[in-house]
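Dear colleagues,

As part of the handover before I leave the project, I'm documenting each prediction I ran so the next person doesn't have to rerun anything. This entry is a single chain, and its sequence is reproduced below.
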Amino acid sequence: MNRAILEGLKRRISSAHGAWVDELPNVLWAIQTTPKTTSGESPFSLVFGTEAALPPKMVFLTLRTSNYKQGDSEKGLQANLDFLKERRAKAHLRTLAYKKATARVYNRKVRPRLIKVRDLVLRRAEVSDLTRARGKLAPNWEGPY
């Protein structure tokens, strides 16, 4: 999420580095209302059950805003809330299918290799080894390379 925020700010701000404070709400709004590839839904719609609408002072006069009726809107919002669990379940299934397809593409290039006795392999570093550094700076592997 931090990377997405930074990329959005970099796109909107070129030379004025102090202007990021003014652009941050716009970037956050864009992130929350943009449909994601994995789920096909925006985070806003998965939370509130409906797509986001711009505030009235920012909206241009359209057929949709000129024919607006409060009662119809409330009925539509209630219907969206009734189907919210189904939308979340479908988004979850789409996310799982996307991850599976991504793993299939990634694993296509993996070639299995047979390991025999006396072969040199990299072994995971032991966590219980107290003599080595821990955390980010700890080595990931031990043994001869």
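The first helix runs from residue 2 to 12. Residues 99 and 105 are 10 Å apart (CA to CA).

All the best with the project,
I.
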